[in-house]
Amino acid sequence: MIGYVALALISFGIISIAASTNAWTPVWTNHLFHRHTTKPTPPSTATISVSRSCIIVFCNKYCEDVSRKGRSITPLYMKVSSGEKILWQGPLFGRLTKPAKAHLLRNGWKERPVDHNHKYHQMTTTASNTSNRLALIWPNKSGPQLEMDDPFGAHIRPYPKHVTDVLDDKVRMADLLLVTDTQAKNYLPRHISSLQDAHRDKLYFVKHRHGAQGKSVSVYNHTELTEWWARTNNTHDFVVQEEVMPHLFRGRKFVMRSHILVWHHQSAKNMDNGSDRCLDPATFHFHVFSNVIVQHHTSEYEADSRRRDCQIIQAGKNHPAPQLLQELPSDHPAANSFQEIEQASQLVVSAFERSLDDTFNKSLVIAPQTKCFALLGLDWLLQSPNTQHENKSRLKLCEINTHPALGWGTMAKAPSPVFADLLEQTLDLLLSSAGEIEEK
């Protein structure tokens, strides 16, 4: 009988999952799940084969690397008549736990109590004891160090931060698409590298390279842009984009959020020769999810206005409820744009893939594992048909999020099943050897 391993919620929560010999066994914080022996086993996962038990960890931004600090954690839970239940104290992942748990239960998982006396830091991955080896770790944006150097050598983990920085960093992302792919750059707004490139009758969006959630975005006319340029010493830390004249729906701008899962897995050759390279570039995969979320601005668009609620999707209050692309009315300009989004996404991902070749060859030296992945959120604008003669593409990429909001922030009003389905497909893709699923 396998030993029990206890993981606990810190502040907002950790989810953990464990597996036993020849079968996956998840631990759900204060419950242990094991597979029904009467149900069929899921597809064999040769790429994540483990001799004994494994653990899958989801972690929010308050998660600490307690294993390094040698701390044990007090579980947060409450007692109810049907047994112990997790007490989720905030929105982060709280909306995802129920559908994820239901997904596991539908696919042959069963729960039983776990021993909370075990300590997280007692787990090891030494050759003599692989009983508690991590199978998958998925921290939020600020999960300290767990992305890169957890001591257990997770078989599946997010790309280290220095790898995804090429997308998170707006300056590097623009350089990547402008330089590496002549087609991909057609999906970028016009970038301004000097005042001489700026037109006097245009608005400009100035974004800090590390800005997030629209908080480091300013909207300037030409005069204001000139003043900003004169007083700013570190202009290299910003991207300056000419306004994309937006296609409107009922007088409002809108943004489309698509999601892409990208992953590599280590080839058998690399694993056999003991290579410390995480991944084989030849095994790069990606999946564009079919559900695209459309978010409309809170107020009507006004040409030449610098009001944030008019120009920046995260600004303002009382946003209309997000809609899925396929739910839009037929007269909506984005109603039939999924194929364009899918094609543009492939070009963006291909540029990212090329950037990985150099990274993997020179700087990616981390624990041996099977797969690295990133769940990306891409924000798209639709250009007004009156200005499309300036560029062949009517689709423009605003930014890429390597830790997209999954049911909180501006996506708090998005239908919960959207993110439940996204989570289920992501888990299926990462935990299956074939890496293929059917669209629902």
Provide a descriptive summary of the structure in words.
The protein has 440 residues and is an alpha+beta fold. It has 3 domains: 14-157, no CATH class; 164-189 and 245-431, 2-Layer Sandwich (D-amino Acid Aminotransferase, Chain A, domain 1); 190-243, no CATH class. Helix content is 22%, strand content 21%. It has 9 helices and 17 strands. The protein has helices spanning 66-69, 94-106, 161-168, 170-180, 222-231, 268-272, 308-311, 338-362, 416-431; strands spanning 14-19, 32-35, 54-59, 77-80, 83-86, 109-112, 133-139, 156-158, 204-208, 217-220, 238-242, 254-265, 285-288, 293-296, 323-324, 371-382, 395-401. α2 (94-106) crosses α9 (416-431) and α3 crosses α4 (170-180). The longest helix is centred in the last third of the chain and has 25 residues, at 338-362. The two termini are 37 Å apart.
Main attributes?
440 residues, alpha+beta, D-amino Acid Aminotransferase, Chain A, domain 1, 3 domains, 22% helix, Tubulin-tyrosine ligase family protein, ligase activity, signal, ligase
Number of distinct helices: 9
| Biggest sheet layout | 7 strands, mixed
Mean pLDDT: 64
Give me the oligomer status.
single chain
CATH hierarchy: architecture of the largest domain: 2-Layer Sandwich
N→C terminal distance: 37 Å
Alpha-beta classification = alpha+beta
In total, how many beta strands? 17
| Contiguous runs where pLDDT drops below 50 for at least 5 residues | 1-95, 109-135, 142-153, 268-278, 362-369, 433-440
CATH superfamily of the largest domain: ATP-grasp fold, B domain
Domain module tally: 3
Shape: globular
Keywords: Ligase, Signal
GO molecular function: ligase activity
Protein name: Tubulin-tyrosine ligase family protein
Signal peptide: 1-23
